[in-house]
Amino acid sequence: MNEPSNVGEVAHVIQLAVAPAFLLTAIGAMMSVMTSRLARIIDRARLLEGRLENTANENISHLHADLVTLAHRAKLISIAITLCTTTAIMVCAVIAILFLGNFFQFNVSLAIALLFILAMVVLVIGLIIFLREVFIATSSLRIGPDVRGGFRQVPR
After folding, report:
1. Using CB atoms within 10 A as the burial measure, which of 6, 19, 59, 84 is most buried?
2. What's the pTM?
3. Widest Cα–Cα separation across the chain
4. Distance CA 67, CA 132 (A)
């Protein structure tokens, strides 16, 4: 008679773990976007570094400024990826604690609540840092030809 109730309890724990599992999917999608942006930043930086050798002296300062901006963006994206990865690990820990608490029959509600709240705080910080990188990217965007043969800065 004990076995059906255990199966029912496990089924209930699985139901509780589904929401965090969907959260993991969303975090994974965000991390995919972030890693794509990081790859594009790296590609752009390599392209600009390659142009340094063949650029006239008056344009080198512009290339260096662009490289500094790209380095800053890469650092922000890296921090955002780290925070989102940390969030995913915490969500995995929430799921594991749910199952361990059920298996060993101890109350894990406080641990789960605190860990989930911490995971959401870390995720929010990561998303804010990602948003900061997006703002920097759009503020440094150059569209259209400039008289000097370069590109003009978009007004902020």
Report:
1. 84
2. 0.80
3. 84
4. 17
